Each structure stands twice: as C-alpha cells, then as structure tokens.
Amino acid sequence: MTEKIVGMITSYPGLNQSDWLWQQTPYSFGKWGNIRIQANHPQPDFLLLYQFDFWKPVKKLSWKGRLKQTFKPKPPEPDIREKFRGVPKDQIIYLLREPPLDEVVGNHKRNYEIAKQYCGYVSGPDDLAPTPDYMPAIWYHSNGFRELNEMNSPEKVRPCSWITSGVSRTENHRKRLDFLKDLQSKNGEIDFYGRGLPTWVKASGELKNKWYGMAPYYYNLAIENYADNDWYVSEKLWDSLLAWCLPIYYGGPAADRLLPPGSFLRLPSLDEQGVSYIQEVISSPDAWFEAQAAIAEARQIILHKLNLLNWLSEFSEEFNL
C-alpha cells in the first residue's frame, strides 16, 4: 500500500512545526500505518485543518482608538484555497477541538459553515458539527511512544496534583478557579502547577513537560472546561492516564464510552461535595492500587486506538490513491 502524506495547518500559534505529533508513533518521521504526517509538506495527499479559524472577530476599537485610526484601502483577501496546497476537497479534513462554550459557540458555527465549502470531512466535539464526534487523542508528554507503551508505572511519591491555568475569560473558567480556591483552602495534599495562575495559588510553577507534574503522583485532577455534551473529552484525561495516575475526572459522559470502567474516578461536582470527595480519595493510595489493571488497559486504548495518527490512517484507507 502506497504511503500517504498528511499535511496540517492550524490557528494554534507555534504548532506548525515539522515534527508535530512525531512523538505519537514508534516510527520515524511521523509514520503510522499507511500515513506519514508532515505538517509543512508542499504537496500532501491529505490536509488536516486542526482548529483552523476561517473566521475571526474584528477587534472593536474605543472611540479614541477610532479617532486615531488611519484609514487605508484594505488589500483584497487572498484566496483561502492557496493554503490548501492543491489537495482535493474530499481529502481535506477539518477537526475543531475546542469546547462549545457559550462565549465562543458563534465562532464555531461560522467555522463549520465555511469549512463545509472547502473540506470533505468536518467534525468537532459538539452537536453543532456536521459530523459530531470525539476528538482523536493527542497528548502533551515529551516521552517517546515506545517508552510510554512499554513502561510500568513510575514510582509514586505524592498523593495528588492538578495542572491547570489562570485563564478566566469564560464563566466555566471562573467556576474552575473558584473551585481551586476552595480546594486549596481545605486540602494541603495537592500540588498545583500551571501558567498564569493567580497570586493566591500556592503553586509549584509552570511545567514545560507535564510528565513531571503527573508521574510521581497517585492521583491527578483532570477537570474539563466543559462537561455539558456527549462528545467533549480532552487531553487532560489522556495525559493523566499515560502518566499512570488515577484521574479524578470532571467532564461529560464521552469518557465513559471511550475508556474501560474503573480507569478513572468521577468527581461529582465543583463544590463542597467535590472537595470532600477528593479529600476522601487521596487520603489513601488504595483506589490507585485497585485501578492498576484498568489504567493499563486505558493506556493501550489511548496509545493505539484513540491516537490521532491512528484516526488519520483509518480515514485515509477509504481512498484509493
């Protein structure tokens, strides 16, 4: 079977590097099955538009800003198809990965409508998408695929960690920060990591490699920004399990359909009940020991089945190129 090249464009800053996703395969240069992912290949067989924004809101200026603005003729917009490197429509894949939060759902609708004009497959983790579906898995550990695939559990020396951020631009983000404040005030056994955290957080700092903030811990808090549909589940859960943590997970029902029973614990709510639940679980490593077989099974599902490279390989097999 002829190898097929998958290119990629995205609106995520800094993600167009040549080796994007190469850590998610045991083979060289992004090979998996019958595909090879090379983000910047000039003539790929398939093109992945990964969280690509066709439409962006215009920044509103204050009245003072409008007075200072110099009006110049706006150059014509380049044909968007120039970005697609000659790939036919039915071989262009659009995957939107962000949750449909109230504050951004309008942007999602616009992106889906435009994507249908240029892409043969348009999907996202919400019912607004032409093809609603779970997000294929990516992860944010720097470990190689073979290491993750073959390793036993690393030594566990601390009860629980939470890697999060100080983002507060949506109501859901603010709710998560309120829960963090409540949790921190009542439990000293959790280590917090992340970028842009408020000064009141007793944080251990930002991590370049999430492995170091997960692997030494029995438990990890995996708290989604969105938990209100049947599709959304993010790398928060994959990262936790690949580090052999038992995730204490807050999210929608998608995880139950994708992973084996017992491979994660359900956080009931982001309130006092949730705080009490976490305190009870992390007081002992017993639940982690009981979940070892389920965690091992879940890790293999993430690495081999849910893996975005595996998804792309299976998608490409439908074409006789």
Radius of gyration computed on alpha carbons: 21 Å
Approximate strand percentage: 15-25%
What fraction, in percent, of the residue positions are helical?
25-40%
Q: Tell me about the biggest sheet?
A: 7 strands, mixed
Q: Strand order within the widest sheet?
A: 2-3-1-4-5-6-7
Mean pLDDT: 92
Name the helix and strand elements from N-terminus to C-terminus, one letter apiece: EEEEHEHEEHEHEEHEHEHHHH
State the end-to-end CA separation: 9 Å
Number of domains: 2
At the first level of CATH, the class of the largest domain is Alpha Beta
> Could you please say which CATH topology of the largest domain applies here?
Rossmann fold
Task: Write a structural description.
This protein has 321 residues and is an alpha/beta fold. It starts with a strand and ends in a 5-residue tail after the last helix. It has helices at residues 63-68, 105-118, 145-150, 171-186, 235-242, 254-258, 272-282, 286-290, 292-306, 308-316, and strands at 4-10, 31-32, 35-37, 46-50, 92-95, 121-124, 131-132, 158-165, 190-195, 217-223, 246-250, 265-266. It has 2 domains: 4-63 and 71-136 and 307-316, no CATH class; 145-305, Glycosyl transferase family 10, C-terminal domain (Rossmann fold, 3-Layer(aba) Sandwich). It has a 7-stranded mixed beta sheet with strand order 2-3-1-4-5-6-7, with helices on both faces.
